[in-house]
Amino acid sequence: MLDFAIFAVTFVIILVGAVLYLYPTSRTASGIPGLTPTEEKDGNLQDIVNRGSLHEFLVSLHDRFGPAASFWFGRRPVVSLGSVDLLRQHINPNRTMDSFETMLKSLLGYQSGLGGGVTETLLRKKVYESAIDQTLEKNYPLLLKLVEELVGKWQSFPESQHTPLCAHLLGLAIKCVTQLAMGDRFRDDAEVIHFRRNHEAVRMCMFTCAVLGLRFIHIPHPFISWCQQIWSEIGKGYLDGSLEKSSSRKKHFEDALSEMEGVLKSVVKERKGKDFSQPAFVDALLKANLTERQVMEDSMVFTLAGSVITANLCIWAVHFLSTSEEVQEKLYRELEEVLGKERLSLENISKLTYCRQVLNETVRTAKLTPVAARLQDVEGKVDQHVIPKETLVIYALGVVLQDADTWALPYRFNPDRFEEEGVRKSFSLLGFSGSQACPELRFAYTVATVLLNTLVRRLRLHQAERQVVEARYELVSTPKDDTWVTLSKRS
């Protein structure tokens, strides 16, 4: 989403690591005000560590130096943009590469489709997005069923019981993504649990890069093991070289990635050349005449990105609804007026204007993706500042999403703000809605809409007493600890 996805901070680390010592740069950062290096070798890395995350570091940086600020990553200067106006000047609305897909493929070492020309890149992007759209259309009844199962389970809980949102909604997201992506293979819970172990290891590979706040939500569930390992080693291992220094960590990483890829490759082989009554994401890619390797890679990206973005969007949306009875009731009234007794269809989702506002405000208030980045491919300019070619440019989205000059009462959860056209345009510019939104986020919006529709029409949400929910600002922001709600039935 936005260029967040093209070279989101983790990918930038890899790029910088590759050229850090090969192309030394000057000690100035294009005259843009900012910090001087704290250390000769590491630049301002220790300052980032001291702040707790890259997002929190950027907040303090822009508070001190204004909307355009600079700092040092190693020996290379970095420019950070922290206002809607500067981002509007810098963002290329005609970019041809999907950010999240590009980032994850690069992080995982997947190069197919990345080295071609503009035409090939556009074709691959269209195939990927079309496959997600087809998958939702063909498997929408399955999505309804999975959500119904979860909400039905919640309906059976006593009203005094505390329900853990992170654990339950991560499980829902992973079920939705794996079953829609790979079909019948993951309709069996035992197969899903087996896949979860590897998903956790992949996820943990980014989980340890705490210095830049690029971790994903940690839940002690067997489904997440592979993903956590791969995510954490991609971030921390590439940053400090520790992956190469530890044979055991490197083997754990490689084993987790290999096992996940093995599962995906077997699914591709099983489904190639066959027709299914409910075609999956894999089937749509196979019909587009991609190679088996390309299909595996795209399936990996969709599985990882789709699960994490969907889970966290749902978690934050349900949490914020539990804090506001007024917003819940307004959403309930819209659902009753638009749908009546009908079930929600894909066609009706676009009619749920207020529901869309709730999800938009969830993304904004939670700062769902607080940091984005890209490498300046040609010399550019924002205001009076020239940004040289190959400069690392960070989009401080978390700063922009809480900017009082753009959003009235920015720390308040208020879906009504999206009634204003200017607010919607600013939000779209940042890549969170419209044609600029990444396909995984659009998928997440669909799942979250189905969840809120089913949940709010049956139950009322109540915030757990004396609960303080704090965010961990990572590649995708998540609660530091599991978030709890209680539920009561609507009469």
Automatic annotation (TrEMBL):
Cofactor(s) listed: heme
Query: A single Gene Ontology molecular function, please?
Result: iron ion binding
Q: Tell me a GO cellular component.
A: membrane
- One GO term (biological process): swimming behavior
Please list which residues make up the signal peptide.
Answer: none
Entries under InterPro entries matching the protein: CYP450_20A1-like (IPR052666), Cyt_P450 (IPR001128), Cyt_P450_E_grp-I (IPR002401), Cyt_P450_sf (IPR036396)
TM annotation in the entry: 6-23, 301-321
**Record has Membrane as a keyword:** yes
Tell me which residues bind heme.
C438
Q: What keywords appear on the UniProt entry?
A: Heme, Iron, Membrane, Metal-binding, Transmembrane, Transmembrane helix
> Would the keyword Signal turn up in this protein's UniProt record?
no
Per the record, the similarity remark reads: Belongs to the cytochrome P450 family.
PANTHER family cross-referenced by the UniProt entry? CYTOCHROME P450 20A1
This protein is called Cytochrome P450, family 20, subfamily A, polypeptide 1
Q: Which organism is it from?
A: Paramormyrops kingsleyae
